[in-house]
Every structure is written in C-alpha cells, then in structure tokens.
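Key idea: predict the complex, not the pieces.
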Amino acid sequence: TVGAVAMDANGRIAAATSTGGITGKRVGRVGDSPLIGSGTYAIDEIGGVSCTGHGESIIKICLAKHIICLMESGMKAQEAVEQSLQLMNSRVKGAGGAICISASGEPAFHFTTERMAWAIAKADVLSWGLDPKESNVEKM
Amino acid sequence: VEPVVVIHGGAWAIPENISDASRNGVKLAARKAYEILKHGGSALDAVEAAVVILEDEPVFDAGKGSCLNAAGLIEMDASIMDGTSLKAGAVAAVANISNPICLARMVMEQTDHCLLVGEGANMFANECNVPSVDPSSLVTEACLEEWQTFEKYKSAVDSLFNNQITSLPLGHD
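Result:
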C-alpha cells in the first residue's frame, strides 16, 4: 500500500491511498484502502489521514476517521496516530501504519509493524525513514 | 500557509533487498508533491502525483508491483479525498489500468458516486478514455514468486486452519 497527505498554501488538505492488496487474497476481497473513513480521510478543519496495514483490522476500527475524531477532540496529530494504532492492536490484534497532517500543518506518522517507509517535506526540509526510530534529514 | 507533505509505503516486514528502493521511492514522491505545492498547486494535485510515482515504483504493492490474488490475478484499490469539499472518489478490484489513483479522482470529479468496483470501475475507465493496459504488465517477478510460494504452501495453511480459509489469514495490504 502507498499513500500521501498534503496541505497546500491555501490550507487545503487532501489524502490519497492506493494498494494491490494481499498475496493470495480471495477474489473480490477489498481492504481498507478504497473505503473512505477506513483507509483515507480528509477534512480541512481537522486534518488528513492515509493508512496502511492489515485491511480488515483497519476497516473494523475505521482507522482514518478514528484518528480524525481524536484530533477533533483536541489531541495532537502524533498522539492521535499512535493511540489509534495501539487501539487497533489491542482491540482487533491488527498491525499497520498511518500518516497524518493536522489543520495547523503538523505532520505525524507511526507504525506498529517492523518497518514502514515514510517521508515528510516541510519548510524546504525533507525527512524520511524506514526502521523504527530511523530519521534522516536533508535540505531540499 | 506553509505547504506540508507526508508520504507512506506499506507497513510490513520490508525485506532488506528493497529497503533502499523503498526509502528512495517515498523521498521521490515527497519531493514531487512538495514541488507542486511550492509552485501553487493544490493539495489534491500533490497527493495524486505522489501516489502515481509510488504506483509506478515496482517495490511498492500498488499499481506495478501489486500482489496477485488467489486466482493469480491483479485487483487494485484506491481512494482520494478533498478535505475542502469532502468530495471523495474510490475504485476497487480494478485490473487493467496503471494508476488506480487517477481513476479514483475521476470518480470523485466526474460522477455523483464515491466508489466504483470491478467491472463497473473498468467500464468507467473506458468511458474516461483511461489507457487500458495488459494486467500482466503490472506483475513483477517478485510478486509472481511470492504468489507461487503462496500456491505451494496454501494447502498446508488450509490444513492448519481446518480448511476454513482460501486465503492467508494474516498479511498486509
């Protein structure tokens, strides 16, 4: 799965997600990626989210909208992403990852799997990583 | 407002032999999206362009490099959402286009619907003159090998779960 969230110069937010699914999936099986509220959500007043991981678990939690709802209640983006993925892990035993931008332009990401490739571009600085706690930075 | 972009690839046990390509893929997508935003482009244009790059990069499970299903076929899903209007578009189980995210955006902008699936999604792609590609062109050697491994051991997995399943119970999109 791949995804992107962006905020433009007008403060508008958009999110997108795309996937090929899982090897050997049942014909006709659909995961979270095309389901608004599960794999993807965006609302300018709160933020935007794109998710990856075990699709069925993400659907059960409505992960993208869950993260948005936590932010709507006042939680910071990073905390909302982490708490939501922990909920998914504890409640339905699912692992995954998510990226997020809040309405104030705060980027966030987290994953509960072994690895997830991520990148953030903001203020002409590009940061990226793959392993837990890995963070590289370069000037754009 | 300061433009911001965040990108992700798949969350899973990414093998070491594709770790650098995965890092480079998300960096390239972030750079492209950020460049669009810095030149006054919209958030929608930025996320679509970023995902197109990732769909075209074979190490990611989307577009070229998609996993094969139980029948050995490709079925891809994608969605896009505009946070200003709350318009959304999505496609599921599409097989014969290179960039499902572009078709999802067409669903959002050219229909009253949020999600088109399977044959209907492919018919819509034809209506929109989206170039049709041979699905085999989206299959990589690595995905084919993974599917062949799945086929080889599927019966063992089925036995383990008392023949109650026809696909792996775990795994990540």
